[in-house]
Design goal:
InterPro entries: Globin-like_sf (IPR009050), Globin/Proto (IPR012292), Hemoglobin_trunc (IPR001486)
CATH topology: Globin-like
GO molecular function: heme binding; metal ion binding; oxygen binding
Bound molecules: protoporphyrin IX containing FE
Pfam families: Bac_globin
Low-confidence stretches: none
Protein name: Group 1 truncated hemoglobin
Oligomer: single chain
Mean pLDDT: 90
CATH superfamily: Globins
Keywords: Heme, Iron, Metal-binding, Transport
Strand content: under 5%
Helix content: 55-70%
Order of helices and strands: HHHHHHHHH
Distance between the termini: 82 Å
CATH class: Mainly Alpha
Amino acid sequence: MKTKIFFTVLTFVAMALTSCNDDNKDEKIEPTLYTRLGGIETISKVTDKFLTNVAADDLINSRFEATVGNHYRLQLLRNNLIDQICAGTGGPCQYKGETMLDAHAGMKITAAEFGAFTADLTAALDYYEVAEREKNDLLAILTPMESDIVDK
Ligand code: HEM
């Protein structure tokens, strides 16, 4: 009798599990861009390479002279950029810096400078062989910020 009850319960459990599997069959959980990029590790090394590129870029490096000359300020910018990309791509970070409008207010940044900045980021993504899809997805998040950054 006990054996019969055991097998009956086992059959119900098996049926319940099978039906759960059926329910989930069509649910494809797409990883976040943060995960697809390679998480905080890739974002951190791409940001460091990007800042090196900016420092060597004669089109825009004068904009960052004061930042590069102050270790604390440079670290703050680095951390803000990492948090911004991490949070913007669905990662577990919180961006605590200023809005793009406030951070760049009064700088009168030109469209050409904005282009140079994103080209330096693209070069950093290429340096670490970030795949085309992830690269374009990240740039698609950052480029619309142009309206809050240029000519302000
Ligand atoms: C999508 C493009 C851009 C993003 C995502 C971005 C992001 C940021 C962030 C997160 C900060 C720090 C804000 C804070 O301190 O609270 C910042 C500051 C700054 N950005 Fe941008 N930025 C962009 C474009 C540019 C461009 C094109 C220039 C100039 C060529 C520029 C020049 C600066 C400067 C000079 C600072 C101040 C750095 C400091 O505090 O020492 N940014 N930006």
